[in-house]
Amino acid sequence: MRLTDAVFARMIVDVRSMLESMTPEHKADFDGDFLKAIAEQPNEILKCAMYLFLGYLDGATQFAQSCGGGGTSSDLPWGRNPDEDDRRFAYRCMMQAHKMLKPTQPKRSMGGRR
Prior knowledge:
The protein has helices at 2-21, 24-28, 34-40, 42-54, 57-66, 86-100. The protein is mainly α. The longest helix has 20 residues, at 2-21. It contains six helices and no strands. It has one domain. It is 61% helix and 0% strand. Helix 3 packs across helix 4.
């Protein structure tokens, strides 16, 4: 967590400041977007991303679920691509953590319709 504090602390402050100064109309454009999520729950996203970066998939899933997220339901393989550098993989981990921390959407059923 020291690494995330050192690398991302200033970015989080800047994004929060930017969002606070935006009009409600402009803020509406950020609904569900990564920038808004990282400003509102930076520690959760960074911790989940760190689990992913280190290869602790079960830890990342459990952490995301404990924060109210849906975890992950994908059966796709996860991990670093052989030709992927640290920055690209870290970026993918952040995006995946953002997805994992979103609450699951209830599945719609056609059973009640006539």
